[in-house]
Amino acid sequence: MEILVILIPVSLFLGILGLGAFYWTLRRGMYSDPEGDSRRILNHEYDDAPKQDET
Amino acid sequence: MTAPLRPALSACPACNAVPAATATAAGAVADARILLSVPGVHCAACISTVERDLNRMPGVRSARLNLTLKRLSVAAAPEIDSDAVIARLAALGYEAHELDPGTLSMTETDRQGRDLLMRLGVAGFAMMNIMLLSVAVWSGAQDATRDMFHLISAAIAIPTIAFSGQPFFRNAFAALKARRLGMDVPISLAILLATSISLYETFNSGAHAYFDAAVMLTFFLLAGRYLDYRTRAVARSAAQELAALEVPRAVRLRDGAEETVPVAEIAVGDLVRVRPGGRMPVDGVVTAGTSEVDRALLTGETLPVFAGPDTIVSAGEVNLTGPLTLRVTAAGRDTSLHRMADLVATAESARTRYTSLADRAARAYAPVVHILALVSFTGWMWWTGGDVRLAINIAAAVLIITCPCALGLAVPAVVTAASGRLFRAGLLIKDGTALERLAQVDTVVFDKTGTLTLGTPELTNLGDHAPDTLAAAAALAGASSHPLALALAQATAAAGIEPAVVDALAEVPGYGVEGRLNGAPVRLGRAAWVGADAAETTATYLAIGGVTHVFRFADRLRPGAEQVVADLHRQGKSVWLISGDVPGAVADLAARLNIKDWQADALPQDKVAKVQTLASAGHHVLMVGDGLNDTAALRAAHVSISPASALDAARVASDMVLLGRDIAPIAGALQIAAQSTRRIKENFTISIVYNIVAVPIALLGFCTPLWAALAMSASSITVSLNALRLK
């Protein structure tokens, strides 16, 4: 049972990590165009050289 | 992009880039941000075609297409204007409209959505962790271990509920303050009661805690809330987009010099110039120039009307052939157009509100839930002789198990699925109850000009004329921008007729075009000016050497017009055509489309009267129209649709907006509406059946948290899956 002392914090930490990642994607506006993003996957344009931020 | 350059985030990455670009270009020229609505984009190829082409366009810094909103945002050098981009898109085959970025305050609605999504994410995270701990408890954790698990659950659940439950608590509080029992009151009560009882149980080493149920309840209800929000946000942003379609600018004459100013700055008494092809920005009296004005949007007349000095024109009319100078008699909110729009808006809000299925369900449901919980509490108090702890426990179980999750998801899930499907077909729902009302429609009333037809004429009697005549006509027509001349030039060009060589071509605004063919004068234009007898239908006249020729025109059908009428007939709906145009033109169109019931020369009040007569005969009427003359009828109908090209007033009055040019989706929309109403009713049945099964179990006190959680998830998931069947 002592293992729980490690496992529970670990699982909570991983969960919070996921939540943080979700918050980050949300702030970056990654859910603003779900339709377009799902189609953009099919686009080979930036496969070898991803588009760079211009600024 | 570096962090300090990113103060305000908005939905589109290109918009994000704008402040950054402005900041880096401080001192240098600032980029212009152009927002366009491109209703025609639909696929991966569209995205790459549009973006690649625009990024190659000189002066364009970046272009990004948002497929969800069908909106293109372009950052470009200041010398690039929207017209250039629109022309470029037209060459690619996409119709585009400029949007006014000022009117689109998309960050506000966006923040709301992001807020809901964040609460949903937090609730999801907490739900999963608490569920893990709960499974450990259910599988036999005892005494100290169980208490520890419960404590950890509490530590996760309480902040989560405090954060994620806020939308419900706020609504419930507002409802209570207004002395109402909304759906949010039982929800908040269940969440709070479950949390406090669980807390009490935890500190008293009880066997059962309801943290999992409370958090799961919050999660599923937030999911419903978010779906609901998504549907409305799409509708709202598109409605804003439509309002932003007309970028209001006018050319003011000041001391003889022209200056382009926003309409808001025009005052009564100013002189305003309206170029051919432009729309009157204000009400006014013509002081100089002759031309013809197109009043089709306001009156439904297809034929242009002559305008010269002292003619009174209204905002919204289109100037066709010559430049006009107007003395402004009313501007901005005082124009006749705006006053009409305001009237309609007022009447609209006064319309007896249709109560949606969800409202009716909630009204019946909320009191029942409270009464059931109270009954179980008093019942168990009496039965156990005053065991408050047990009684409250069971009452909470009842509140949770009657959780309106399924009910809360039933309508939003279906409406989201249906409106998504309609949006892809080119129809936008503005009003939440429109779908339910559309499902009841049995009679469809169409307006003619601008609705079933595009309002652009098409030559019908090309074969009646000799090639010489056509060649002369083609040459004259090519020199004018009058819609009839354009249609004539197009028809002759399509027939492969070489225009004759005509000298001294000159357009006489308001009358027509004249010139010299082999030394003899030729004229193309109005009957009286040419010296011909006026015909019944829309026509233009040609005079060569004393002989006159008539070119007849019919209104071009909107794409899908034939199909929509045929489809509606097949669905067993009755179809009416009511127009303000002359009987000849209306009868002709009715015959072409196989519509038996039609009415011509209808004034706006005639249209309303017709709709009301049909309604009082027990029919549910769908009105489809675009003009100011249709606005009142649109309002009077059970449900209404107007094309995106319609006037503001008509769009405000209607429940749905047709985004593309094709009118055919209307027939499909009726079917989707009927289907989705069926799904909503099925979903209600599912949640009622679930309650009938689950409530007695809870009432009798057999409900463990595990069962409550399982039953609740099962009902919510069933309802969502049922909604997805619509796709």
From TrEMBL, chain A:
Alphabetically sorted, this entry's keywords are:
Membrane, Transmembrane, Transmembrane helix
Query: What residues form the membrane-spanning segments?
Result: 6-26
Origin superkingdom: Bacteria
Give the start-end ranges of region Disordered. 32-55
Bias (Basic and acidic residues):
36-55
Q: Give the protein name, as stated in the record.
A: Cytochrome oxidase maturation protein, cbb3-type
This chain's source organism reads Roseicitreum antarcticum
Provide the taxonomic classification.
Bacteria, Pseudomonadati, Pseudomonadota, Alphaproteobacteria, Rhodobacterales
From TrEMBL, chain B:
Cellular component per GO? plasma membrane
Q: Which UniProt keywords apply?
A: ATP-binding, Cell membrane, Ion transport, Magnesium, Membrane, Metal-binding, Nucleotide-binding, Phosphoprotein, Translocase, Transmembrane, Transmembrane helix, Transport
Q: CDD domains, per this entry?
A: HMA
Domain (HMA) spans 32-97
List, alphabetically, the Pfam families matched.
E1-E2_ATPase, HMA, Hydrolase
Q: Where in the cell is it found?
A: Cell membrane
- For this entry, the protein name equals Cu2+-exporting ATPase
Lineage of the organism = Bacteria, Pseudomonadati, Pseudomonadota, Alphaproteobacteria, Rhodobacterales
